[in-house]
């Protein structure tokens, strides 16, 4: 993995002995007095893997365009079948909590970061796409004691092949509720797990007044089927929110990642499409 890009690191949160980081790429000529747009990247990896360094090149590309760009570290769940240890996520809700804390930190420290706190765009891939969309739709997942006086909601979101509904095949990613007793009443356990899945699904939290979203999905994606993207697009549009759907007939899962499965030229085209979307929403030019 190429991590030769210039970046700074800040700790945005300490939780259960973990110091969670933001990796920050600043544009050339940056000053704390600036009011620059912010582009926040959230990595994928099934909520159990991945690291913020995966998206440093993406951050660098947007810093070159004039934005302050950051990649978020969040706690990961343990491998399936293992109990969460201190410093690991107890479930997907922990991942959401950490990403909300990260946005709050960015907004709270706008003056130090030289950014416009009302131009925070969040981009996520796969599980990171789910977390990004959660930052537009779900306002009820905060850690105990979290200072909610500052908004954790994104101003714009780009979802690259992210999960938006856990009530179907993705329910397997949701831990069994009351695992010790579920054999005694499997129907009750199934219903509880279904409700938990809905609670973590952005699709089931869509309402009017939510920020603009760009959905990008490959029709060859067998990991997160494109029907997820279509169902969210229809629901978000029906609620009166601004949403755009871009489908790629030739791309599969995680198409926004460099050095993975997609040709670099295709990844760069996707990133250019994201830039054009943010440009159309006045995130660029920098001081517009």
Describe the structure in your own words:
Helix 4 links the parallel strand 5 and strand 6. It is built from seven helices and eight strands, in the order E-E-E-H-E-H-H-E-H-E-H-E-H-E-H. By secondary structure, the protein is α/β, with parallel strands linked by helices. Helix 2 packs across helix 4. The chain starts with 7 loop residues before the first strand and ends in an 8-residue tail after the last helix. It has a single domain, classed as Rossmann fold (3-Layer(aba) Sandwich). The mean pLDDT is 93. The protein is globular and about 65 Å long. It has an eight-stranded mixed sheet with strand order 1-2-4-3-5-6-7-8, sandwiched between helices. Helix content is 30%, strand content 19%. Pfam families: BD-FAE. Keywords: Hydrolase. This is Alpha/beta hydrolase. GO terms for molecular function: triacylglycerol lipase activity. It comes from Cohnella fermenti.
Please state the average pLDDT score.
Answer: 93
Query: Which structural class do the helices and strands define?
Result: alpha/beta
Name the shape in a single word. globular
Query: Tally the helices: what do you get?
Result: 7
What spatial order of strands do you see in the largest sheet?
1-2-4-3-5-6-7-8
CATH architecture: 3-Layer(aba) Sandwich
Query: In which range does the helix fraction lie?
Result: 25-40%
Per CATH, what is the topology? Rossmann fold
Major beta sheet, specifics? 8 strands, mixed
| Proportion in β-strands | 15-25%
Note poorly predicted spans. none
Family: Belongs to the 'GDXG' lipolytic enzyme family.
Keywords: Hydrolase
Pfam family, one: BD-FAE
GO molecular function, one term: triacylglycerol lipase activity
């Amino acid at each position: 993995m190429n991590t030769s890009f210039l970046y700074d690191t800040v700790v945005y949160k300490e939780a259960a002995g973990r110091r969670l980081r933001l990796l920050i790429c600043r544009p050339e000529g940056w000053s704390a007095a600036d009011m620059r747009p912010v582009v926040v990247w959230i990595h994928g990896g099934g909520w159990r893997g991945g690291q913020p360094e995966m998206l440093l090149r993406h951050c660098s590309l947007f810093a070159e365009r004039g934005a302050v760009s950051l990649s978020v570290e969040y706690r990961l769940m343990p491998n399936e079948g293992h109990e969460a240890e201190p410093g690991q996520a107890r479930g997907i809700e922990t991942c959401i909590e950490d990403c909300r804390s990260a946005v709050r930190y960015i907004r709270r420290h706008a003056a130090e970061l030289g950014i416009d706190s009302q131009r925070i765009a969040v981009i996520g891939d796969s599980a990171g796409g789910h977390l990004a969309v959660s930052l537009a739709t779900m306002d009820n997942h905060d850690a105990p004691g979290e200072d909610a006086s500052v908004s954790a909601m994104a101003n714009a979101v780009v979802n690259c092949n992210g999960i938006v509904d856990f009530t179907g095949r993705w329910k397997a990613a949701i831990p069994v509720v009351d695992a010790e007793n579920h054999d005694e009443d499997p129907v009750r356990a199934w219903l509880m797990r279904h409700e938990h899945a809905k609670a973590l699904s952005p699709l089931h939290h869509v309402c009017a007044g939510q920020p603009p979203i760009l959905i990008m999905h490959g029709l060859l994606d067998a990991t997160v089927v494109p029907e997820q993207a279509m169902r969210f697009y229809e629901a978000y549009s029906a609620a009166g929110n601004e949403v755009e759907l871009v489908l790629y007939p030739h791309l599969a899962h995680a198409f926004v990642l460099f050095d993975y499965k997609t040709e670099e030229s295709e990844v760069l085209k996707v990133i250019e499409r994201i830039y054009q979307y943010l440009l159309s929403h006045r995130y660029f030019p920098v001081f517009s």
